[in-house]
Write a structure and sequence with these properties.
Layout lengths: L2 E4 L5 H10 L3 E5 L10 H8 L7 E7 L6 H8 L3 E5 L16 E7 L6 H4 L14 E7 L19 H9 L3 E4 L8 H8 L3 E4 L4 E3 L2 E2 L1 H17 L1
Parallel strand pairs: 1-2, 1-8, 2-3, 3-4, 4-5, 5-6, 6-7, 7-8
Antiparallel strand pairs: 9-10
Helix pairs in contact: 1-7, 2-3, 6-7
Amino acid sequence: MTWVKICGITNLEDALTAVDAGADALGFVFYEKSPRKTTAETARKIIEKLPANIEKVGVFVLGSGENIAEIAEQAKLSSVQVHIREKSGTLFQPISSGRKHYLAVSANDFFDQENAEFAVPKNGADASQWLHAVFLDSGTPQQPGGTGKVFDWHKAVATAELIQRSGLRLVVAGGLTPANVTEAMKVLHPWGVDVSSGVEATPGKKDPEKVRAFISAVRRAEKAI
């Protein structure tokens, strides 16, 4: 089954809606400039009321000042997702001991073959031993995530295949909605998908019907692809 993450959770009601709809993971954003930003305390209070099998992912931007390991411990996160704002994925290292790690990169930086290899960390160790997946997103240096825009999935095929050949899981993010997630899955064949603005009523507040429609679309696509 395709791993589904509902990101930008700011309140318990939205968290429980996503869980009830069949989400595998929930994302809590700790980037200061995000309209979906939450705090470690708020996230912890929500997480305490969630089923143990739901993955709780903290979303961070590398170099933006947050103490990732400290927040992860305070909020009781099970995973950390770290966005990088330049082509430095090869330098990414484990940050918070005992937690899954996800690396998020801007797909637009890796469309050509010359740059595609830089989406995969090479730090002298087998990245697949500690890095759970690589997210291809549509972020920019000014807005690392949550843009609400899609990237060119067809141009990203070579990079997606390289990530998967490297033994890493692929997650597609950026502008996904109930209407387009099927096409993204057909083109890139990801292990997981990640959505935030595409299931919102307003920034930071989810639309329950859109959440349910998104997860239903993913499950239908699994059977069709």
